[in-house]
UniProtKB/TrEMBL annotation:
Gene3D superfamilies: 1.10.8.50, MutM-like, N-terminal. Pfam families: Fapy_DNA_glyco, H2TH. Coiled coil: none annotated. Residues 85-134 are annotated as: Disordered. InterPro entries: FPG_cat, FPG_N, H2TH_FPG, Ribosomal_uS13-like_H2TH, Znf_DNA_glyclase/AP_lyase. Keywords: DNA damage, DNA repair, DNA-binding, Glycosidase, Hydrolase, Lyase, Metal-binding, Multifunctional enzyme, Zinc, Zinc-finger. Belongs to the FPG family. It comes from Cellulomonas xiejunii. This is DNA-(apurinic or apyrimidinic site) lyase. Residues 284-318 form the FPG-type domain. It is an enzyme of class 4 (lyase).
Length: 327
DNA sequence: AGCCTATGAGTAA
DNA sequence: TACTCCTAGGCTA
């Protein structure tokens, strides 16, 4: 899944390729037929992400809310814009590129971009049918005529009013990408962490504390902070929480730019290039259970925390001085 | 064919 | 804490 960076990339991709377009909306799988009918023929006016939630607003005010869950993904086909390094979503907002009802036999340039579990891009062989037949269980298809976006496997896909969407957003903790003031938002996170007796490893995964962190970023942020995930929030010094928040802002920004979660800051250019290709080189502790810690050589521990796998180095990651420990 | 796993989260008990 | 939902790929038999 899709942790926060993926969803921000999807929002940017949609801003480039779908916002401003009148869309044919359907549910090839059938399970979103009513919602699709409600949006069909509408123009998407914005696409944005908060944490792991995607909000697509349509001209009549309806909002499509999508949460990818563990294995959801979007597949984009057709004339898909490059979302390169450092690329910002350009404002096609308010500059409608209206195109709809393209001929069924048209062959727009042919890319296929899968955004969700990892990110893969492929070229579609010439002569492939257009629009492309749905692959797998497609909950919703958004078709601009030149780009088709297929959603499969989401944990949430629903049409909300603007007010209902605002309520969803209110329940989320700060997202470094969407807050006005990074430091002020950090204080909110400090507050929500240091008032609780719950393990800091669980609090970082709690989307109402801070938005967008998943199991990989959780493990890596705590390693980078050299903090024992089992430390109760109450016992984590405020400055340490501030540091984790700032680090999250950096990792999220990196992830959005690169399209890859690369959480090791020790790699040189060649090392980063290798890690981009090889997932086993990307992280300090995530999915490295039993392997030697890359800093001290101690075997990385895997254990369960609230049904999710937790990875940590038992030597590098310690409770803050004065903490009683929460194991 | 069946079983397991995965970057998630809501609800019930 | 347990169960439920969503999908696909990999492994085992």
């Amino acid at each position: 899944m899709p942790e926060g960076h993926t969803v921000h990339r999807i929002a940017r991709q949609m801003t480039l390729d779908l916002v401003g377009c009148r869309l044919a909306v359907s549910s090839p799988q059938g399970r979103f037929a009513a919602g699709a009918a409600r949006l069909d023929g509408r123009t998407m006016t914005s696409a944005s992400a908060v944490g792991k939630q995607l909000f697509c607003t349509f001209d009549a005010g309806d909002v499509l809310r999508v949460h990818l869950g563990l294995y959801g993904a979007w597949d984009l086909h057709g004339d898909v814009s490059p979302l390169g390094a450092g690329q910002r979503a350009r404002g096609s907002l308010g500059a409608p590129r209206v195109r709809s009802g393209a001929p069924t036999d048209a062959r727009p340039s042919s890319r296929r971009l899968r955004m969700g579990e990892g990110e893969t891009e492929s070229t579609v062989p010439a002569g492939t049918a257009w629009p492309p037949p749905p692959i797998g269980q497609v909950r919703v298809r958004l078709d601009s005529g030149s780009v088709v976006a297929d959603l499969r496997g989401p944990t949430a896909c629903e049409v909300l009013t603007a007010a209902e969407a605002a309520l969803v957003r209110e329940r989320l903790g700060p997202d470094p990408q969407t807050v006005d003031d990074l430091d002020a938002a950090g204080e909110v996170v400090v507050d929500r962490v240091t008032r609780r007796n719950v393990a800091v490893g669980q609090l970082l995964m709690d989307q109402s504390v801070v938005a967008g962190i998943g199991n990989i970023y959780r493990a890596e942020l705590l390693f980078r902070a050299r903090l024992d995930p089992w430390t109760p929030g109450r016992q984590v010094p405020a400055d340490l929480v501030r540091g984790i928040w700032r680090d999250w802002a950096v990792l999220l920004d990196d992830g959005i730019r690169e399209g890859v979660m690369l959480t090791r800051e020790d790699l040189d250019d060649a090392g980063r290039e290798a890690a981009r290709r090889d997932p086993t080189l990307r992280h300090w502790v995530y999915q490295r259970g039993g392997l030697p810690c890359l800093v001290c050589g101690t075997a990385v521990v895997v254990e369960e925390m609230a049904t999710r796998k937790l990875y940590r180095c038992p030597a590098c990651q310690v409770a803050p001085s004065g903490a009683a420990g929460g194991r």
